[in-house]
Amino acid sequence: MDGIRYAVFTDKSIRLLGKNQYTSNVESGSTRTEIKHWVELFFCVKVIAMNSHRLRGKARRMGPIMGQTMHYRRMIITLQPGYSIPPLRKKRT
């Protein structure tokens, strides 16, 4: 699963779990069809819809030099009723 980085656990993503929608951050170069194929292949589920949006990196300062963290893409994956994905590992901090 090179494209899927980690699951996102926010208030909104936990609320979406009740609608059988799962949220995860993916690599910014991945396409919707690639992510859909990976999810269906590795979790043996049927994806009916995918929504995505691109999130900008945050500004970070290292002494006098101003930089940015990497941009990333967040996907909201909707599964058919009756299917579910086991919880993905949380990102280490």
From TrEMBL:
Keyword Ribonucleoprotein: yes
PROSITE patterns for the chain: RIBOSOMAL_L23
Localization in the cell: Plastid, Chloroplast
Keywords assigned by UniProt, alphabetized: Chloroplast, Plastid, Ribonucleoprotein, Ribosomal protein, RNA-binding, rRNA-binding
Pfam families: Ribosomal_L23 (PF00276)
InterPro entries assigned: Nucleotide-bd_a/b_plait_sf, Ribosomal_uL23-like, Ribosomal_uL23/eL15/eS24_sf, Ribosomal_uL23_CS
A single GO molecular function term of this UniProt record: rRNA binding
Keyword Signal: no
Function: Binds to 23S rRNA.
Similarity remark: Belongs to the universal ribosomal protein uL23 family.
Assembly and interaction partners: Part of the 50S ribosomal subunit.
PANTHER family tied to this protein: 60S RIBOSOMAL PROTEIN L23A
Record protein name field: Large ribosomal subunit protein uL23cz/uL23cy
